[in-house]
Amino acid sequence: MIEDDPVPDSLRYRALKRGGGKCLLCGLLAKDKPMHVDHIIPRSKGGLNTLDNLQTLCFECNGGKNNWADTDFRTGSSSWLA
Asked: Fewest beta carbons less than 10 Å away: which of 2, 5, 16, 38?
């Protein structure tokens, strides 16, 4: 595994489609700001380029999460901001 392998375009598309066009943390819509495909378990911590390890976050939420959190915001039960 190479930590900086890019997410393949076809996988990125599937993750964005599954995200429903919104940031799964703050709810911002993709029509208002581009979405990033985030690794739930960061690549630097062994996370893989798999659909199960990807979620959509806006630029600000993705930057705030950085690589120290492994929170899955798809479940809606995160206490990351608490």
From this structure: 2
**Angle 38-21-73 from CA coordinates, rounded to 5°:** 45
Helical (H) or strand (E) element with 54? strand 54-58
Domain boundaries, the chain: 9-67
Look at strands 35-39 and 54-58 and give their pairing: antiparallel
Amino acid at 13: Y
Tens-level pLDDT at each residue, the chain (82 residues):
455 678 999 999 999 999 999 999 999 999 999 999 999 988 888 899 999 999 999 999 988 887 776 777 776 544 444 3
With beta carbons less than 8 A apart as the criterion, state whether 9 and 49 touch.
no
**């990351």: which residue's tokens?**
80
